[in-house]
TrEMBL record:
One of its GO terms (molecular function) is metal ion binding. A divalent metal cation 1 binds at D236, D247, E433. It catalyses: Release of N-terminal amino acids, preferentially methionine, from peptides and arylamides. Keywords: Aminopeptidase, Cytoplasm, Hydrolase, Metal-binding, Protease. Residues 154-339 form the Peptidase M24 domain. Residues 71-81 have a biased composition (Basic and acidic residues). It comes from Aquatica leii. The lineage of its organism: Eukaryota, Metazoa, Ecdysozoa, Arthropoda, Hexapoda. Its EC number is 3.4.11.18. Its cofactor is Fe(2+); Mn(2+); Co(2+); Zn(2+). Binds 2 divalent metal cations per subunit. Has a high-affinity and a low affinity metal-binding site. The true nature of the physiological cofactor is under debate. The enzyme is active with cobalt, zinc, manganese or divalent iron ions. Most likely, methionine aminopeptidases function as mononuclear Fe(2+)-metalloproteases under physiological conditions, and the catalytically relevant metal-binding site has been assigned to the histidine-containing high-affinity site. This is Methionine aminopeptidase 2.
Length: 452
């Protein structure tokens, strides 16, 4: 990541540029020379001639703002995408990182200012300039600056997620057990996020749901399931700083015959981030598998959702099919935009052994009679609070013989169980997901990376 300039330095540079541009008696050669000097000066002030980016009054890079201004209706052209990819590579976001990654993200950014995600302008009616005006409104930019600390925290969590998942995309191979995969991912993420009790860490267990299972599967201790070459696996995990959660997922395949399914769901997710047309995009695709053609269906009983501190599902839903409950999104809200596609029925149900659990966020105090239940609840409160957890994590926290106590907490409504969600056996499901911030000035896809 490039070094950042202060607002004073930026204002000084603007004054110098304005003074130089008022000189009418300079020839073209002199003007060109001054431009080169200004460019070199900007680079030097930013700390490096290769990795610099000037910062505007809003604390954002000029480069990002130029990209956002040249987008129409939130859609990037090819030149923008190439430019962004190039700049991310040279921007130093993994500069100094080890392979495999082990250095905490906070240590890679001495300024403690972490990378922005993808910036998109709001889209409303064709002739409505209100959304576009938000981007340049000084009032909205001032509101943006007031939330800098919050945005910076979630960007730190996002960078830890990006570096972790990109390592896992290179690392995962068929023949590994699902426990191996989850432990490598979680150990890497814990190092990068600099795990610190409830202040920083993993936001929920690693989902590694395969094939007809769409979500909420993670292996319990003793699960010997092995990843196969023909599997379609959804890798869904979260990181957080002070409860600010990044919820982001991708689909992993090795056999290219599933490419159309993956493409359909990725396209639908990106469309859902821009505009509300997920189902139309998803169901415009079909896939041929082993000589038979299948329509790709949106899984209609899975949705995106709002996110609040220490609460992964905070009340609002983002339907991926038409006819669902209309959701009013508001300024400064956080959302997970996720879409699921299936070659099956397009409906999921609870199935298989449960591994995911989460304390009920709104549950009032309930007296407990069993000492084992009291002890387990203390372990949950200390290690997870209202964040989701799994049985492997209880083992890691030192809990033993907790099955009866866990059932008691679930029966009393203190803890909720979240079993794996599956479509019909024999079908294949895929998922992509990003976390977005509805900033006063723009929409930030904070978890966006070069990978997806």
């Amino acid at each position: 990541m490039a070094a950042l300039k202060t607002e004073v330095e930026v204002d000084d540079e603007k004054d110098e540029i304005a003074e130089e541009e008022t000189l009418e008696d300079v020839n073209d050669d002199n003007v060109s020379g001054k431009k080169k000097k200004r460019k070199k000066k900007k680079k030097k002030a930013a700390g490096t001639e290769n990795d610099s980016e000037a910062v505007n009054e809003n604390g954002n890079t000029n480069e990002v703002n130029e990209e956002a201004e040249c987008k129409e209706d939130g859609v990037e052209n090819d030149a923008d995408k190439k430019k962004k990819k190039k700049n991310r590579k040279k921007g130093g976001k993994t500069a100094g990182q080890t392979d495999p990654p082990s250095i905490p993200i906070a240590d890679l950014f001495p300024s403690q200012v972490f990378p922005e995600g993808e910036i998109m302008q709001y889209v409303t009616g064709k002739d409505d300039r209100t959304a576009k005006d938000r981007f340049t409104s000084e009032e909205k930019r001032a509101l943006d600056r007031m939330q800098h600390d919050t945005y910076n925290e979630v960007r730190l969590a996002a960078e830890a997620h990006r570096q972790t998942r990109q390592h896992m995309q290179r690392w995962i191979k068929p023949g590994m057990t699902m426990i191996q995969i989850c432990e490598e991912l979680e150990n890497t993420a814990r190092k990068l996020i600099k795990e610190n009790g409830l202040q920083a860490g993993l936001a929920f267990p690693t989902g590694c749901s395969r094939n007809h299972c769409a979500a909420h599967y993670t292996p319990n201790a003793g699960d010997s399931t092995v990843l196969e070459y023909d599997d379609v696996t959804k890798i869904d995990f979260g990181t957080h700083i002070n409860g600010r959660i990044i919820d982001c997922a991708f689909t992993l395949t090795f056999n290219p015959k599933y490419d159309k399914l993956v493409e359909a769901v990725r396209d639908a997710t990106n469309t859902g981030i821009r505009v509300a047309a997920i189902q139309e995009v998803m169901e415009s695709y079909e896939i041929e598998l082993d000589g038979k053609t299948y329509p790709i269906k949106s899984i209609r009983n899975l949705n995106g959702h709002s996110i609040s501190p220490y609460r992964i599902h905070s009340g609002k839903t983002v339907p991926i099919v038409k006819g669902g409950e209309a959701t009013v999104m508001e300024e400064n809200e956080f959302y997970a935009i996720e879409t699921f596609g299936s070659t099956g029925r397009g409906v999921v149900h609870d199935d298989m052994d449960c591994s995911h659990y989460m304390k009920n966020f709104d549950m009032p105090y309930v007296p407990l009679r069993l000492n084992s239940s009291k002890s387990l609840l203390n372990t949950i409160n200390k290690n997870f609070g209202t964040l989701a957890f799994c049985k492997r994590w209880l083992d890691r926290a030192g809990a033993t013989k907790y099955q009866m106590a866990l059932k008691d907490l679930c029966d009393k409504g203190i803890v909720d169980a979240y079993p794996p969600l599956c479509d019909v056996k024999g079908c294949y499901t895929a998922q992509f997901e990003h976390t977005i911030i509805l900033r006063p000035t723009c929409k930030e896809v904070v978890s966006r990376g070069d990978d997806y």
